[in-house]
Design goal:
The chain is of the alpha+beta class. It has helices at residues 20-26, 41-47, 59-73; strands spanning 10-16, 51-53, 84-90, 96-98, 109-112, 121-123, 131-133.
């Protein structure tokens, strides 16, 4: 039986491939600059110093948002690492609910404390439909 990409009990985070080497060393840390580099002043202020994760249901929305952001940067997406990558972590961390906004997925997101690299897995794609520790793919 083929394993599903999603499993209950996890939170997900979508980021650009170019961020994975840093995440593999430092984990998910609040940053001043998020993957969604072109944002309104409100969204920049709202997301500064926070780590956001979501449920499986909104992963597609966030991946598509990164594709759009990469297109707006008008570079060579693959060459510059502007390819969406899916990370997951167990959903047993303390979270703060971030209520839906009018420019996001329309579903709750969650604000979490920094997540150690050892707690993160990266999706290896549909061919294998498997997950691996984020440190193993750099």
């Amino acid at each position: 039986m083929k394993k599903r990409a999603w499993e209950p009990g996890y939170f997900y985070h979508v980021t650009f491939l170019r961020h994975v080497p840093n995440i593999a060393v430092h984990g998910l840390q609040p940053q001043a600059k998020a993957s969604m580099e072109k944002k309104s002043a409100f969204l920049r202020k709202h997301s500064k110093g926070r780590v956001f994760v979501s449920s499986w249901e909104t992963v597609g929305f966030w991946a598509e948002s990164l594709v759009i952001a990469a297109e707006e940067l008008r570079g060579d997406a693959c060459k510059e690492g502007l390819v969406p990558v899916l990370l997951r972590m167990r959903a047993d961390v303390c979270v703060e609910v971030d209520l839906p906004g009018w420019r996001d997925s329309g579903a709750e997101a969650f604000i979490v404390p920094p997540i150690a690299a050892s707690e993160l897995e990266v999706y290896l794609g549909r061919a294998s439909n498997a997950w691996a520790p984020v440190a193993s793919v750099t």
